[in-house]
Write a structure and sequence with these properties.
Layout (H helix, E strand, L loop, with lengths): L2 H11 L6 H12 L4 E4 L6 H11 L4 E5 L6 H5 E6 L4 E6 L6 E5 L6 H4 L1 H8 L1 E4 L2 E4 L5 E6 L12 H4 L4 E3 L6 H13 L12 H12 L5 H15 L4 E3 L3 H17 L7 H12 L4 E2 L1 H5 L4 H11 L11
Helix pairs in contact: 1-2, 2-11, 9-11, 10-11, 10-12, 11-12, 12-14
Length: 314
């Protein structure tokens, strides 16, 4: 594994037990300049994960608690008139952080949800007709509760498409939970975390991820998987070209994390469900047959022929 990435993961392991794969996927999204939607029940460590990641790379961390009465200006900031200077001055909103936790994003109105669209896609925001660039790196991790739907607003397809990955943490095993209680009984591990990398290191890793080699056969494999989602009997709307590009970027970042400078078919198979599943719109018959997007992706990956070439030809 890439030595710099291993430092971050070991740091996160001090406060997150048994969630190495979730931490890896979060770093995949960060290095691919994407964002994460984390769907799970309260209390499994979603907030702790993103805070530990921010502290590990010495990034500014902002948290937005999404509520029904939250306004776009509460996210983006607002211009306030200063009588001394006779001019409007911009007061930054929490979106201006390097790592932003959008907590329970589905509890706010679509108008406020859409305030994130430009920031997540272009890393800029528009205030009073003026475009402001966000600091780099810029990473949004949004959470939502999959159980409680009363008083929530489902994320529209355009919003879901801005998330590179969607994943679930799940409950820890009994052994992992016991270890968690043991650590917390003796000390507070999060307070002892120190940065192991800095923002410049992350920006350099992002550039390295972009330079990772992906063979034409692998690119064609991604296209075939995307095409299969558009022609599946259970899927009304399949993966878009943006989803294909997202999967390619994610595979490059994952390869870098694994210490490789090339992408393999295994990378595509591992990441495709995380990148494509939340972008699929299912037909009613899928619900009748109790089929979920993740199950459909498993079937598609089992049917699409895997490229034989695994060693890159550069």
């Amino acid at each position: 594994m890439n030595e710099q990435i291993e430092k971050i993961l070991l740091n996160i392991d001090k406060v997150m037990i048994g969630k190495r794969n979730i931490a890896e996927l979060s770093l995949v999204s960060l290095l691919a300049k994407g964002h994460v939607l984390l769907e799970d029940v309260p209390g499994v460590g979603k907030t702790m994960l993103v805070k530990a990641l921010a502290k590990s790379i010495n990034a500014s961390f902002k948290r937005i608690q999404f509520t029904p009465d939250l306004l776009p200006s509460d996210v983006l900031g607002v211009s306030i008139y200063n009588p001394k200077t006779l001019a409007f001055e911009y007061r930054e909103g929490p979106i201006m952080g390097n790592i932003v936790l959008a907590d329970e994003i589905n509890r706010t109105s679509p108008k406020t949800q859409s305030a994130l669209l430009e920031a997540m896609e272009e890393a800029t925001i528009s205030i009073d007709g003026e475009t402001k660039a966000l600091g780099q790196p810029f990473f949004v991790m949004a959470t939502q509760n999959p159980i409680e739907y009363e008083g929530t607003y489902p994320l529209p397809e355009a919003q879901l498409d801005r998330f590179l990955l969607k994943m679930k943490m799940g409950y820890p095993t009994e052994t992992e939970e016991y270890e968690l209680l043991t650590r917390m009984a003796e000390a507070t591990p999060f307070a002892e975390l120190t940065p192991v990398l800095h923002l410049d290191d992350i920006l350099a890793l992002q550039q390295q991820a972009e330079a990772v080699f992906i063979d034409a056969t692998i690119r064609n494999y991604i296209v075939q998987i995307a095409t299969a989602t558009r022609n599946h009997k259970y899927i009304y709307l399949g993966a878009s070209p943006r989803a294909s590009l997202a999967l390619m970027r994610a595979c490059k970042a994952y390869a870098l994390i694994q210490g490789r400078d090339y992408v393999t078919p295994d990378d595509v198979q591992y990441l495709a469900p995380y990148v494509f599943s939340h972008r699929l719109i299912l037909k009613p018959e899928a619900r009748y047959d109790d089929m979920m997007p993740e199950q459909i992706m498993e079937r598609i990956l089992a049917k699409v022929a895997v490229p034989a070439r695994r060693v890159p030809v550069k």
